Amino acid sequence: MHTDDSTVIGHQETYAMNQTEGRLDRGNGQQIAWIRIEGRGPTVVFLPGYRSDMTGDKATALAALCAARGCAMLRFDYTGHGASDGDFVDGTIGAWAADALAAIDALTQGPLILVGSSMGGWIGLLTALARADRVAAFIGIAAAPDFTQALMWDAMGPSEQATLQRDGVLYVPSQYGEPLPITLKLIEDGARHHVLTGHIALSCPIRLLHGQNDPDVPWQLALKIAEQAASQDTRIILIKDGDHRLSRPQDLDLLCQTVAAFLPQDGT
After folding, report:
1. Residue 212: inside a domain, yes or no?
2. Which CATH number characterizes residue 121's domain?
3. What does 165-231 look like in DSSP terms, one character per residue?
4. Structural domain contains residue 14
5. Structural domain of residue 82, as residue ranges?
6. pLDDT, tens only, 74-109
7. Does some domain include residue 2?
8. Less Cβ crowding at N or C end of the chain, within 10 Å?
C-alpha cells in the first residue's frame, strides 16, 4: 500500500506487537509453520500458490493491512512449502487442502475471509465449501481451480504424459526459477478434488482478481468460476496489463482495497 513513512512505522509497530508464530503438528510427524495477527474478526486467511509461501508480497501486504486495521489474520505454509516440514514432491491438492483446514480449525475462530492466490484459489474454494458456515467472503487472485488437469495434464504432449506415467514425475521449465516437478499422484489426486463440476455451492460474496496478461492461468477461468458459483454477489476484476503474480504496487493496492471492503470500517 502507498503510505508515508510515519504510517509505515506505525504499521510495523502494530504488526510486531500483535503477531505470533508457531508450528502446528499435523499428526504424521510433520509440522506446518504459521504466523497469526491477533485482532477483530473476520479473520483474513491467506492461501499461497504452488511452490509459494506465506512470506510473499501479497501475504505481507495483507498482513500490514490487517495490522493497521486491528484485524485478525492467519497465514501458513503447506507441507513441503516454505518453513513447513515435508518434501514438495510428496504433496497433493488433497493434502494441502487438509493442511488449510487443520490450520483454520486450530488457529481461528468465527467468520473468515479466504484469500487464495493461484493454486491457493483452488485450495480456498475447497476450504470454503468445507466450512461454508464460517466464510464471510472469498477472494481469488488468478485463482486456478482444477489446474492439474487443464493446465498440466492436458497441456502435455503424448511423450510427456508417457514419461510422467512411467517415472511418476516430470520436470518442466519454469520462468520462476528451477524446473517445476509435476508428479503423477498430484495429477491423479487433483482429479478427485475438482470444483468446476457445474455448480459451486458458495453463497458468500466472491471477488476474482485476474490479470489479462497472465501467461500461466487464463483469465477466462475467472468467468467459469463466476458462472458456476451460487453466490449472486460475485464480481470479476480484470487487470488489463496484469500478469500472473499481481504483485506490483498497484496490484497490491487493488488487493488490499478488495479485502478492506469486508473488514470493519471503524478505527484506523
Report:
1. yes
2. 3.40.50.1820
3. HHHSEEEEEETTEEEEEEEHHHHHHHHTT---SS-B---S-EEEEEETT-SSS-THHHHHHHHHB--
4. no
5. 31-155+188-260
6. 999 999 998 999 999 999 999 999 999 999 999 999
7. no
8. C
